[in-house]
Write a structure and sequence with these properties.
Number of strands: 19
Helix content: 10-25%
Bound molecules: flavin-adenine dinucleotide
Shape: globular
Strand content: 15-25%
Structural class: alpha/beta
Number of helices: 10
Low-confidence stretches: none
Strand order of the largest sheet: 5-12-13-14-11-17
Order of helices and strands: EHEHEEHHHEHEEEEEHEEEHEEEHEEEH
Mean pLDDT: 96
Amino acid sequence: MRAIVVGSGAGGAIAARELAKSGFEVTILEAGKPFRPLTHKVEWLSSLRGSWLLKDENSIKHVFPHYAVTRASADLAIFRGVTEGGCTSIACGNMVRAESGLKEIGLDLSDEFEEIEKSLTFSPIPRERWRLLTQQMYDEAEQLGYNPKPTPKVDDLSKCVGCGYCELGCSTGAKWDSRRVYKDYLGKGISLLTNTAVQRVLLDGSRACGVLTSHNESIEKINADVIVLSAGGIGTAQILKSSGLPARDNLWVDVVLTVGGVMKDSHMLNEPPMAWFIKKDKYILSPYFDLLSFWFHKPWKDVAMQDRVGMMIKLADTEQGTVAANGTVKKSLTKTDIECLDEARNEAKQIMEASGVVGPFVDGMVHGGHLGGTVPLTKDDVETMHPSWLPRDLWVADLSLMPRSQGLPAMLTTLALSLRVTRKIIKEKSKS
Ligand SMILES: Cc1cc2nc3c(=O)[nH]c(=O)nc-3n(C[C@H](O)[C@H](O)[C@H](O)COP(=O)(O)OP(=O)(O)OC[C@H]3O[C@@H](n4cnc5c(N)ncnc54)[C@H](O)[C@@H]3O)c2cc1C
């Protein structure tokens, strides 16, 4: 039987591997190019800050074309990886269970989480490898009663050189990404076509029978017995809408705002990002040198790299963004989002000040990159993992399925969701 998996990120990687293991002939269709980390030194870029070349966030394409940038509103930019491995190739390697909203719909992913966790090596960055300021901020946060914890990572620490550029890929191969999930099956059940974007799903009556793709200038139809959309919260919604199918206006992005302060010669970039985190109800706080704000955000321009300090707020935002068939995204911060950010900003500032970091404290660029919610599962879908409005033989296996925002790293949850969906596909197709 032939399966198409659209996207090679967290969701697509698991779907492709599991289908191939069960004897499907799988083709992964990936819109992006093969991933290459930015290996050369990028310090020289600092001198170009504020210049035409690094004028705003869209300029990232001159530096690192694997990022796709979308402006969702005046107050929110969205970043995602359109490349082999999707957002996992530009992730920081943090991995935690993010389960907000699952209990409400009766979905228990414990078995899938356990299975995936067993297959990976989790290791927080040891304290002695944190910068001194990061250690101090941890201690102060503890003193202040915030209960910080080292962040679980899936990095191979023996290879990590602590360069801090995780989000530009990993030149030493220390960082896990989804390409590792299926690499042993390439040529043995899985074919990967990069630079091949799916435009829409083809229908034959009430069932999906293939996809229309574009590759360079050419358009091609590819038929299959099963089509799995794992193009991420934006990509999957865009394909569905282009196919006349109603993706939901429920996009969430886990809003990120890094509060910037100053400490002379703290060299915060030179450590693995987000070495520890504080978990609050709607957000996390975590030490983070926000490269994107450093390069592209004008209010951060006057502080040199070695002196810039950042504390990230990652917020579970209100789920109400829309994605159009042409890929346009509309989403703004709500009053609740702004109130939560205000509360978190005060806490971030308090921890930094207690650690000797001084002002001016300046907000970084508000952006999001955990994209979900556009095909939200409901109670009625949990048994089949196939929302009833999707045509037969068309499945979704990515973070789009997650109804609620998390304010937490989302890769592990995506892997678990995709595992559950793919096992359902295999079961259903074995009957036919
Ligand atoms: C900068 C950054 C850092 C992050 N760091 C972390 C972290 O440390 N830990 C963590 O848990 N999470 C992190 N995340 C989030 C995490 O990577 C994502 O939540 C997760 O990868 C989502 O998986 P997915 O399969 O839904 O989508 P993705 O991984 O984004 O995969 C979607 C894939 O579909 C492809 N695609 C899109 N449209 C099409 C189309 N039309 N045709 C064909 N292919 C298409 C894309 O190119 C991409 O490869 C980070 C995200 C970003 C942006």
